[in-house]
Amino acid sequence: MPSGGPFEEFALVAPQLSLEDARLIAGELFAAEGDVAELASHQDRNFLVTTGDGRQMVLKIANPHFGRAALELQNAAMAHVTGARLAFETPRPLASRDGSLIVAVERDGRRYDVRLLTYLEGTPLDQVGHLSARARAAIGGIAGQVVRALADFPQAGAERALQWDPRLARAVVDGLVRHVRDPARRELVERAMAVHDPALAMLAGELRVQVIHGDVTRYNLLGRRDRAGRLVPCGLIDFGDVGRTYLVAELAVALADVAGASSDPVGAMAEVVHGFHRECALSEPELAALFPLTLGRAAAGAVSGEHQAVLEPGNRYVVDSTEVCWKGLATLAALPAALAEAVCRASCGFEPNPSANALTRRLASARPCPVVDRAGRHLRTVDLGPRSEAFAFGEWRTPEGLAAAVATRTGELAIGSWGESRLARDEDAGAEEPATVHLGVDVFAGAGEIVRAPLAGVVERRERRALLLRHEPADGPWFWTRLDGIEPTLDEGLLIDRGQPLGTVASPSGPLPAHVHVQLSLAPLDRLPAFARPSHRAAWLSLCPDPSALIGAHAAPRPRDPEQVLAARQRSVARAQRTYYERPPEIVRGWRQRLYDSDGRAYLDMVNNVACVGHSHPHVARAAARQLGLLNTNSRFLYSAMERFATRLTELVPDPLDTVFLVNSGSEANDLALRLARSVTGRAEVIAMEGAYHGWTTATAQISTSPYDTPAAEDERPEWLRVVPAPNPYRGPHGADDSAAAARYADYVRDAARGPAAFICEPQLGNAGGVLPPQGYLAAAFAHVREAGGICVADEVQVGYGRLGRWFWAFEQQGAVPDIVTIAKPAGNGHPLGAVITTRAIADALRPRTSFFSSAGGSPVSCEIGLAVLDVIRDEQLQENAHHVGDRLRSGLDRLMTRHALIGALHGAGLYQGVELVRDRDTKEPASGEAYALCERMLELGVIVQPTGERENVLKIKPPLCIDVADADRFVATLDRVLSEGW
Q1: Residue 711: is its pLDDT beyond 80?
Q2: In the chain, N or C terminus with fewer CB closer than 10 Å?
Q3: Cα 897 to chain centroid, rounded
Q4: Can you give the pLDDT at residue 644?
């Protein structure tokens, strides 16, 4: 290793050249005449040169300290990497007028070496609001590709004493830390170096050495947006730190920057390391040294920045980047080093902590003393996870519900499992992934029961309600046991024997009843969390292995990964039944306006109009259970629930609608509506709208014209179908500024009505994203159809049932009365229930041709559920809530539209609204890819929303009607964040 050099004497002030100097140098020496603008730089001076014909180049004026040999090394490395033809761009040096790649100039008595490089298009990643997991993995991949490309680069002359070399972090800190005035920051530096120094002393000889780029950071990485608006890293600049050092230092530099700037540094670290390892495989010693090197780089960067800020107090780039360094160092230093190593190992396919399984086996054979005396009690593992049947109707949110979940019979002791995901306690916490994975075992013993030491050891730390015990086996690594929820009676430093009393079970202090939380740790952590984020599960469970042996029973569940569930579904279920999202979470629970995945995370559900009154509504669930316990049979038996439900429905519609058919779905309802219309008229012809979807049966699929839902619709269009333009004021031929638009759109229906059986439409264009037709359209269209002898069908499957707020039915908004109304989705709140509401005359037209029978349609259970849903809408005033919250939602979306050009239009009313995304407001080019990518990012932030429409570019907002103002505000704020930061 080279000498660290006198870093304390470095005073590398950037060359003091003006814009005019740069302009003259570029023109005189490189024939690059044009405008000059300064670029951010550190110790060197960089300028962007733009020539008259639009070409751009970078003029680099080197700090005299580094010498020409360093610049020649940089040029050679650039050429070497460029020649490797990697998946990203790098700059190239351009020749001067005399053919030189490096030219010396003198200004104010000082000699400077100057180069002109090609300029790479792209946005520096430090200027990007959000780096996706894909982008972070790509950063690691770029670092790995550079290392691979430079593996055969000549190492002669590449040995440099650079203050940015992670090998020299200790020397840099020693030389420059005196410039750090803040004692807390100095302590932070030494805390980082306390991890760095011993690790490097032990591992240095096992680390590969080669030439690396040395500065693969967000400042030197460029990105472009793809067609979906996703950021794709595409370029690497600034070879100023090229030198011979540890191979893994390339990755450490990237981690110090990217993970240090992340709100989830552990997750960012995993992604960057995984990307690097795919390109350049890391060894176990390199993985052990990686985080210490990262801390060393972060500490050296912070003190170097502090020093440079003293030298150049007026350089905002230096001052601002130094603050970023300090924040990054604080973020990284707060991470347990053992956790970071476990995460890095897991990201590369290694066992996160090799000692974990050995400790589990050791404990199994060590015959520990149970922490709490069983006293003849049988241990019963209780389910406190998101699938627990004990938590019906939100009971996990109350102490009473939790107490009931762990209640036991006489002779039992309840146990809460290690590794179990539990429902997030603060489901409104917002965007961050909650810590839900339980890292210990809970023993629900009574307050005052004796707590004993499971093994011999030492009391390392005593807290008000906890003890941390250290165990020092002679033939294995040390480990620790934390016992939380106790009243300790022993002091720190005491040696303890197996079975020795440590205290008693404390009274409850949180939502759970009295219990002892028993947790193991393979690392001496200052703070041992009881829960971990699901994305960090593997690393944390390896650091905190299964402590079941300490309680005398196995208490570790075997969770099934959502990807396994998805793979099994894809093997067994038809591909036509698609799922939302690229990597869908496994949804296992719903409560009101939230859905919960298998990890216990809550998502705000903004798309589920099926759960009209909210997920798992107790009144609906009890009605179903009550009737299932009495009778469920087919509709040819006489039972009162059918007539009671049908009567309730007819009371909600205008005259002359008075007769009901009960079915199982919207597809069946619309299919039956067509059959009724054809029976009445004796005709086959149907008029439908462009971009419509009415179901999956043969008949309804034929009238569904949306290319998204029915890709072959246009090619397979039957002769009897007449398709008319959708009355869409935003995209249709007649816009919102056309006062005659309603009549013009209705005229298309008139022209198509040459002998129709039916005209079917959604009164609000739900499939288009909630578009409201021009006022008066539906009444005029219905009049034309009736004049031609046809039947008017209002498909209210998506948009009815109070969702629009001001109106119970969407056709009411238009001042029109249909001949047939079809309903489904909200009617059963997720239970398969649909209905056709019509007149007695139309209904009776079917009887001479055939009887009507549906085995489960209108069953006693379905009817009781339908009645319960109507009860809730009425009793909880959900239609009024849709009006109130819908207005709040629209107000927030209106504000977003003034700030984000991607929003081309807003549609709908109440709690059926749409946000139409376009790439250009003038051309209205649909932003379909952006819509899907944006929804993926919204999912990461805890909000479920999906695109709809024939162009797949409208965010459909149709949540359960029980959402409140806070939910609407959260949705708007999250959408604003994603539109601002990117995805």
Answers
A1: no
A2: N
A3: 23
A4: 98
Query: Which is nearest to 536 in space by CA: 394, 435, 409?
Result: 435
What count of Cα atoms within 13 Å lies in the side-chain half-sphere of residue 797?
29
Three-state DSSP at 174 gives: helix
334 vs 633: CA distance, rounded Å: 62
Maximum Cα–Cα distance across the chain: 108
| The token pair that represents 735 in the structure block | 């816009």
Q: Tell me the C-alpha distance between 722 and 719, whole Å.
A: 8
Topology adopted by domain 878-981: Aspartate Aminotransferase, domain 1 (3.90.1150)
Average pLDDT over residues 903-918: 98
Half-sphere exposure of 399 (CA within 13 A, CB side): 7
Tell how strand 758-761 and strand 686-689 pair up.
Answer: parallel
Place of tokens 């894909």: 134
Residue 793, CA atoms < 13 Å, CB-side half-sphere = 32
Q: How many residues does the chain have?
A: 983
Q: Rounded to an integer, what distance in angstroms lies between the CA atom of residue 313 and that of residue 356?
A: 50
Handedness of CA 168, 174, 176, 180 (dihedral sign): positive
Pinpoint the alpha helices (H) of 852-964: 860-875, 878-899, 928-940
pLDDT in tens, 536-565: 999 999 999 999 999 987 877 777 788 899
Predicted confidence (pLDDT) per residue in 494-531, tens digit: 999 999 999 999 999 989 999 999 999 999 998 999 99
Q: What is the pTM of this model?
A: 0.93
- DSSP for 520-542 reads EESS--SS--SEE-GGGHHHHHH
Distance CA 275, CA 137 (A): 4
Domain 655-857 adopts which CATH fold?
A: Aspartate Aminotransferase; domain 2 (3.40.640)
* Alpha-helix runs per DSSP H in 4-130: 19-30, 67-83
User: Distance of CA 567 to CAs 157, 347, 562, 747, Å?
Assistant: 53, 21, 9, 50
In angstroms, how far is CA 489 from the centroid of its own chain?
45
Cross-strand partners of 59 = 47, 116
Give every CB contact of residue 831 below 8 A, 6+ residues apart in sequence.
620, 624, 861, 862, 865
Element (H, E) at 658: none
Peptide linkage before 656 cis (omega within 30 of 0):
yes
Which residue has 């162009």 as its token pair?
951
Domain 1-350 CATH superfamily:
Aminoglycoside phosphotransferase (APH), C-terminal lobe (3.90.1200.10)
Q: What is the CATH number of domain 355-550?
A: 2.70.70.10
- Cα 632 from Cα 624, distance rounded (Å): 10
Q: Is 519 helix (H, G, I), strand (E, B) or coil?
A: strand
Instruction: Output DSSP code: residue 924.
Output: -
Q: First vs last Cα of the chain: how many Å apart?
A: 42
Q: Which two tokens stand for residue 833?
A: 């229930």
What is the SS3 assignment for 467? strand
Domain ranges of the chain: 1-350, 355-550, 655-857, 878-981
Q: Rounded to an integer, what distance in angstroms lies between the CA atom of residue 274 and that of residue 304?
A: 29
Instruction: Kindly list the distances between the CA atom of residue 231 and the CA atoms of 87, 135, 186, 258, 785, in Å, as whole numbers in the listed order.
Output: 15, 7, 36, 15, 51
Report d(CA 116, CA 99) in Å as an integer: 12
